[in-house]
Amino acid sequence: MRYLAILLSVSMLLAAGCTPSNEQYVTPARLDRGLVVILPGIEGEGLLSYQVRSGLLRGQVDSALRIYRWGRPVPLAGPLLNQMDVIGNRLAAERIAQMIVIYQDSHPGKPVYIVGHSGGGGVAVFTAESMPAGHKIDGLVLLSASISKGYDLTKALRGVRCGIVNFYSGGDVALLGVGTTLVGNVDGVRGPSAGLEGFDRHPAGLYEMPWNRQMARAGNDGGHAGSTNPRFVRSYVAKWVLTDQWPAD
């Protein structure tokens, strides 16, 4: 119910036109220092993705911070369609990969990270898989990711330089346990998500970060929206995009 209330609030903000633009966070000066692509969940750009961006700003991330709307902007039914559209999600990831390649060609040597929440975490993995030869993303940060826990990350890890860090919580049962068992994760597999239980396999380059009580003190209550709390993002997430030496802890 709490997450539904958040989605309702997001819809009201969108209807009122209160959508902070990317422009002030994607300036030439910021682009010269690097790029962080923020991929929202199935609800699209809104309150939760703005919270992630706010937390990165508070964490002194001075790179460009672009929120990328990867799903369909369909009222009411859009979130469910985005969750279940496996082919569309992979096509969206290819477009994001192309955008990153264009950025890398124009800003050689500058770091690129993706921070993906919920369904956006799954799309982040697909994006790493879509990176062409000679181009890599520096790292992926997955927050409450809706991708099946048995997903094989081998191909995605070939598309990243530092690795993949997965923040997950066993308290996120309603959406990443029950919900994904009923309708599937963004990769089309039904069952618990990696955002609920972590990944089954732990290849080199994967860093698992389970929820703990210290995270609660930073504003992450262990629920689905907790990993987007600005205080949590500032304390736990920003450090991963501020260093090229992983693990950040």
What's the number of helices?
Answer: 11
* Basic shape: globular
Low-pLDDT runs = 1-19
Radius of gyration: 16 Å
Total number of beta strands:
6
Beta-strand percentage range: 5-15%
Main sheet: strand order:
2-1-3-4-5-6
CATH topology (level 3) name:
Rossmann fold
The proportion of residues forming helix, as a percent range, comes to 40-55%
Order of helices and strands: HHEHEHHEHEHEHHEHH
CATH level-four homologous superfamily name? Alpha/Beta hydrolase fold, catalytic domain
Spatial separation of the terminal alpha carbons: 34 Å
Largest sheet, in brief, is: 6 strands, parallel
CATH class: Alpha Beta
Number of domains: 1
Mean pLDDT: 91
* Level-2 CATH architecture: 3-Layer(aba) Sandwich
Helix-strand category = alpha/beta
Structure description:
The chain has helices at residues 2-15, 28-31, 47-58, 78-84, 86-106, 119-130, 154-158, 173-183, 194-197, 213-217, 230-241; strands spanning 35-39, 64-67, 112-117, 137-143, 160-168, 206-210. It has 249 residues and is of the alpha/beta class. The longest helix has 21 residues, at 86-106. It is globular and about 45 Å long. Residues 1-19 have low confidence and may be disordered.
